[in-house]
Design brief:
Strand order of the largest sheet of chain A: 4-3-5
Oligomer: homodimer
Distance between the termini of chain A: 25 Å
Low-confidence stretches of chain A: none
Number of domains of chain A: 1
Largest interface: A-B, 40 and 40 residues
CATH class of chain A: Mainly Alpha
CATH architecture of chain A: Orthogonal Bundle
CATH superfamily of chain A: Winged helix-like DNA-binding domain superfamily/Winged helix DNA-binding domain
Radius of gyration of chain A: 16 Å
CATH topology of chain A: Arc Repressor Mutant, subunit A
Order of helices and strands of chain A: HHHHEEEEHEH
Chain lengths: 158, 158
DNA sequence: TCTATGTATGTAATATCATAACACGTCAAG
DNA sequence: CTTGACGTGTTATGATATTACATACATAGA
């Protein structure tokens, strides 16, 4: 999967590609990418980071949208439901999905140096988890896998 | 690892064993198991569930300890540091560690039916995660793996 | 024994994260 | 042209967590 988050790259390629995919997906599914929702997605796409709902809200408010928490939470929840964003439990924050449409139950790598959040391919991780769970008779429905650590750049810098 | 959380068992065997181990570990390390800390551990050990800090606090207050959040958070943080409790990110809640002393970076299995939380052996899961991370040059320091699903009993009942 | 020091606890105040409930507007189907 | 579904705005409140400071308590060193 995509190592880009951790390296210099032309970020427009990321965000533009995701925006197009998002539009296509939502058109196909009939869900509506309203101005607030679109703007929230754009804001999340600005960086490979996780943003708190209140940070997003502040941005929205500054641009003339509503300035009460539900405005942000509703848009964020919508994006999460549509698979366009992920919630990072550990940070109480949200990040744009960089691979919308692709079926994926990602693992998140959170750099403690630069706060970058990347999605890692988690199929083997999930397989191992489901196997461990099955040994106890437990059926996994959803799982969150979040790792804290250092990205290549921050590791080198430290 | 221990499938007990998901089955009928003499729970005193769990909690007594853990309490003894906890005492031994802390005596050895020089850390102090003060009344508040001991009581919090006992409370967590009452069930194979996760408890919110404010639930713990309520219990403490009812027993004559302080009734402000830091009282609970400090004791809980202490137990987590000492490896005697775990924080479940997904639930904003805490659970007693059922295998203190054993080196382990567990995966948590959270039953959506009965709220039981079990620790599953996570060595293979972590290995898979570290491997996926290494492919991106990322070094994992700490990770949380939390699965929602159904335990054997609740699965059968549903 | 006394006192200085570090550690633990108690409390007030506040910060941060999240949701419930209701009002209003828009738009498309009937 | 009305109705109903959906989206947005707003008020209020709930739930989770931390900062800062005061007090007590244990214990090692004078």
């Amino acid at each position: 999967m995509d190592p880009q988050p951790f390296h210099d790259h032309d970020h427009h390629l990321c965000s533009d590609a995701v925006m197009s995919q998002a539009e296509a997906m939502l058109t196909a599914s009939g869900a509506r990418l309203t101005p607030v929702r679109r703007r929230v997605l754009e804001i999340l796409l600005e960086q490979h980071r996780a943003m708190g709902a209140y940070d997003v809200l502040q941005r929205l408010a500054a641009e003339g949208f509503g300035n009460q928490p539900p405005v942000a939470y509703r848009a964020l929840d919508f994006l999460v439901e549509q698979g366009l964003a992920h919630r990072i439990q550990r940070l109480n924050a949200f990040t744009a999905c960089m691979h919308p449409g692709e079926a994926h139950a990602p693992a998140f790598l959170i750099c403690q140096g630069c706060n970058t959040v990347a999605e890692a391919p988690a199929a083997p991780v999930r397989a191992a988890l489901e196997s461990a769970a099955a040994d106890l008779g437990f059926t996994v429905e959803r799982a969150s896998v979040e790792a804290l650590g250092l990205c290549p750049a921050c590791r080198e810098a430290s």
